[in-house]
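Re: the multi-chain job from yesterday

Posting the exact lines I submitted so nobody has to dig through the queue logs.
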Amino acid sequence: MSSPGGPAAGAPAPSARAPAPGGRAASAPLLGHDEEPTLFELSVPGRRSASFRTTGVPEWSAEELVPAEELRPEPPALAEVSERDLVAHLTRLSHRQYSVDLGAYPLGSCTMKYNPKLCDEAAALPGFTNVHPATPASHAQGWLALLWSLADALCRVTGMDAATLQPPAGAAGELTGLLIMRAWHRSQGRSPGKILIPDSAHGTNPASVSLAGYETVSVPSDERGLVSPEAVRRHLSPDVAGIMLTNPNTLGLFEEHIAEVAGLVHDAGGLLYYDGANLNAIMGVTKPAAMGFDIVHLNLHKTFAVPHGGGGPGAGPVAVTARLAEFLPGPVVARADDGTFYWDGPARSIGRTHGWHGNALALVRAWAYILSNGSDGLRRVSEVAVLNANWLLARLRGTYTVPFDRRAMHEVVVSTKDAPGAAGALRALDVGKRLLDKGFHAPTIYFPLVVPEALMIEPTETESPQTVAALADALVEIAREGPEVAAGAPHATPVGRADEARAARRLVLTWDAVGPA
Amino acid sequence: MAHFVPHTEEEVARMLADLGLSSTEELFSSVPAALRLAGGLDLPPGLAEADVAAEMARLAGANAGDGLVCFAGGGAYDHDIPAVTRSLAGRSEFVTSYTPYQPEVAQGVLQALFEYQTLVSHLAGLPVANASVYDGATAVVEAVNLAMAATGRRSVWVSEGLNPRWRRVLSTFTAGRAPELVEVPLVGGTTRWGRAGGPGEGGQGVPPAALVVASPNYLGCIDPLGAARAAATEAGALLVVAFDPVSAGLLRTPGQQGADVAVAEGQPFGTPMAFGGPYLGMMAVAQDHVRRVPGRLVGRTVDSAGRAAYVTTLRAREQDIRREKASSNICTNQTLVAITAMVQLAWLGTGGLRELALRCARGTRYLREGILGLPGVEPMAAAPVVREFAVTLPVAPEAVVERMADEGFLAGLPVEAGGRQGLLVAVTEKRTRAEMDAYLVALEKVLS
Ligand SMILES: Cc1ncc(COP(=O)(O)O)c(C=O)c1O
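And the result, C-alpha cells for all chains:
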C-alpha cells in the first residue's frame, strides 16, 4: 500500500518529510486538570452583565403592570456573573470539547464532515436573521426563493417531485413521511397497520413507526448483510403499509436487491420510505427514485454539511413522488409565472410539522453548500467518501474482524470480536476510548445492533488521505496494544472515564440537586 | 468550484490503485448498473466561494422584511442579542461537535447543557428539565405523548389559547396515535374549562390524559393556572403549561401553580427570528415524570479520578435503545440553541431577566393604550396582558399587515379567536417610544 503523503514520482518533493495528517488532534494543549466550576459557583449576588437600550418608554412598576396574584415577588434565580467571567467560563468549556474543527470525527452514520465557514457567514447575514417568520411573502422574497430553490435541488438529487422543508431533524422527517404514507393509504380506502424495517435500522426508524401508529415488523439481514427479496416476501401481507430502508444500509453496504424489493412492496400495495441518513454515498451515482422509493427524508446536517451543534439543530426535509405531493405538510413555496414566490397549501396536507417554516438557517447553510459544490462537486463528495471508507477498510482488514467483507460505501463496520490483529479480547467501547488518547474522536460503537462489538467508522470525504491513514494506524496500534491498555483509557482527556452507572443511580440533573460539598 | 474535498488527483489515483481499482466508477460496483445515473445530477456546476457569497447576499438582500420595525410575536420575538451571546454560541467547538456520545471529550457541551437544564428548571419552577426538543410546538407534542404514557389515556383537552400553529403541529404529529383532541374555548381571553367536554358539564365522558394551557396565551392574556390546575385535578389529568420564558421574570412559575409539565419556546434568549428557526423547545417536568422525559438528559457524576464529570443519563428511555417502545423518536435536537439560551440567560442574570420582562410589559402597555385610542379599534380580550396583545380592527388584518409593511412596520400577526379576526401585536425591550409613536401614526393612516 502506498504511503499517503509520499511525493509522487516525478513531482518535486516539497520537503523531505511526509505530510502530517491534518485531522489528528493529539497536540491540543491543556492547562491543568482542575474541574471547571459551574456558572452557579461563579455567581456573586448583585453582579451584572446585562444592559438595555434607551427607549423613552414610561417606567411603570411591576405592580402597576401585573395583577398582584400573578406577580412573583422575586425573579427566578439565574446566575449573576460578569461578562468577563462568562466568556472565560464558556471558552474553557469549549476547550473541553472535541469538534470537527479540531480533528477527525469518524462517527459512523453521523457524517461528521467539515462544515464550510462560508455557510456560517451566509447564515449570519442580517437579511436572513432579522426576518420575522410571519413577514408577508411580498417582503420575504429572498427567503421564499431560497426555500424554493433548495427544495428543487433536493428533488433533483433524490429524483423526487416535491418537498417540505419543515421537519427539523431526521427523526421528525421520518414521522412526517410515515404520516404521509398513512394519509395516502387512507385516500386509497385502506389502513394497513405494519411497517417492515431491517434489523440493522437506526433506532429512530422503529420509534417513528410506533409514533405514526404502526407496528414494526423486523426483517432479518441475510448472511451478506442485506435485505433479501425472500425475507421481504415472507413478511409481506395486505396489512403492510410499506418498508423503511436506508441505502447504503447501516452496515455501509449497498442493498443490491433494492429494485426487486421495491417491486415486491409496490405489488403488495405498500410504499417505500428512504432514510436519507446515508445519502452521502450516492450523490450523482444513483437516486432514491431510481431505486423505487416513494418518500425520502434527508439529514441536511449530514450530507449537506450543516454543522451538528453539539447535537443539533439539523434539518430533515421530506421529498416525495408526484402522487404523494398533495399530502405534504404545508404551506410550501410555489413560484408564480412572473417569477415571484408565494405560500401554497398542498390540497390534502397532513398539517404542519414545525411551528414555522423549519430550521431555516440550517436551510441557508445547505443551500450555500449545494451552490458551492454543484453537480460535479456533489458527485465528487460521494466518490471520495466511498474511496476513503474503502481505503480505510483495506488498512484495518487483518487487524479487526470484517463481518461483511464486501465493497463498502461511505462507511465501514468492523468488529473487535475475534479480531485477528488484537493482542487479547478487545471491547469496542475500549477501542473508542483509547482512540481519544490518540487524538481522534471515537467511531460509533455497538451500532448497528446486528454486529457484536461493532465499530462503525465513517471518515467522510473531507479527511485527507494522510488523516485517514493516521486514523487507521491508530486503530491498528490500539489492537496491538491489547485490552489492558485500552481498558484504562482515556488518559489524555479533560476527565477520565465517567461513571455512567452512578449518574443513573444518583440522578443529579441540575445544580440544585448537587449536595453540599 | 469550492474545494472541500482535499484529495489531489494523484492521491485519488494512488488510493484506487491500492484497492486494485482503476476508476472511481468501480467504487460503485455494488450499485446495479440499471440504477446508475447516466448523466450525473441535473444541477449547475459548483461555484467559487466569492460567487456563492454574492448569491447569498443577493437572496438576503431580497428580503425587504429585514428593514421592517418588528411588532410581530406569536412565538417569534425581536429581542436584542448582545455580542457576547453571538460570540460564545458561535464558537466552533460547540458548533461543529456532535451529540456527546463520548463524555470524556464532550465535557464542554455536557456541562453547558447541565447549566442550561438548571436555568430552565428555575424558569419553569420544576425540578427536571431536558437538554432541548426542536421548538415550542414539538415540545407540546412531547408533553402530550408523555401524558398519554403516564396515564394510559387517549384524550387531551387543549385550550384555544394555545398557539394555533402549535395546535396544528400537535394534531399532525399525534395523528398516528389518534388521541381525541378537545378544544376548550377562550372566553374574554381566558380558558373556560367548564365547557367543551369539561367535567362540569357532562362533556364527552372520556377522561383526559392532559389539559394543555398557555399562559400568557396566544392573545397575550395571562390565563389563570389555578383554574386549569383545579380542572386537571378533577379530571385526574396532567397539567401541561406552555409559558413565556421572558415573562417568567415577572410571573409566578408554572411549577408554583401545579404544572406537571411546562414547555416554552426558547427563541427569545439569544436566537434571531431567522424566518422561524432553528428555535428551541424548552421542557421541564415534575420529579415523578423524570423517566418519561423525551430526549437527552445530562447528569453530573464523577470520573475515574473522582472529579466532577457530566454524561447523558437515563439513556434507556431513548430511541437507540428502546427502539419501537421509545416514547419519543427524537435524536438530533437543538443543543446549540440551548447553549445560546444558557449564555443569554447568564448574561441577563437574575436582575436582568426581571428588567427584560418589565421592559416588554411597559412597551406593551404603552402601545396598547395608543392603539386602543385609534377609532374603530377594540381589545379582543379583557384579561390582563404582559408582552403581547390582540385587537380587532375596522380593516381586515391581512390588509393592514401588507399596508403597514409598505410604511416600514411589521404590524403584527393576523389572529382569530372565537370566530373574530384581529391583530396580535408584540412589543419587546428593543422598541423605542419613537418607533411606537411612528407606528401609531402609520396605523391611523392605514385604518382611515
Ligand atoms: C441511519 C439514521 N437514520 C436516522 C437518523 C436520525 O436522524 P436525526 O438525528 O436527524 O433525527 C440517523 C442519525 O442520527 C441515522 O444515522
